[in-house]
Amino acid sequence: MAGRQLAPLGLSDEERSELESLASRRKTAQALALRARIVLACADGAQNKDVAARVGLDSTTVGKWRRRFARTGWMACVTSPVPARRARSMIPA
């Protein structure tokens, strides 16, 4: 049984160039480079499960980055929300 067919992400030449640069630059943070590789593979028409197998992640993670890119463009790869942590009190109870 084949998975649901997902439409390839449409990348402009500028977006593709920027993502390829992020994915291959040696000084790029590894998490950012991984996100760029995910989006590039999705843009080439690969399904989430195939991209997940290629990069060693779960398909839900690939789906998350596909959706974020589709909503907000390549900057979604650069700026991802980080859950806030509650500050611990320095005074013991």
Give a brief description.
With 93 residues, the protein is mostly helical.
Explain what you see.
- With 93 residues, the chain is mainly alpha-helical.
- It has a domain at 13-77.
- The chain is 56% helix and 0% strand.
- The chain contains five helices and no strands.
- The protein has helices spanning 13-24, 30-43, 48-55, 59-72, 75-78.
- The longest helix has 14 residues, at 30-43.
- It is globular, with a radius of gyration of 16 Å.
- Shape label: globular
- In terms of DSSP E residues, the strand content is under 5%
Order of H and E elements:
HHHHH
Helix percentage: 55-70%
Structural class: mainly alpha
In round numbers, the mean pLDDT is 81
Question: How many DSSP H or I helices?
Answer: 5
Low-confidence stretches: none
Number of strands: 0
Largest sheet descriptor: none
Radius of gyration: 16 Å
Report how far the terminal alpha carbons are from each other: 57 Å
Could you give the topology of this structure?
Layout: H1 13-24, H2 30-43, H3 48-55, H4 59-72, H5 75-78
Which descriptors would you attach to this protein?
mainly alpha, 93 residues, 56% helix, globular
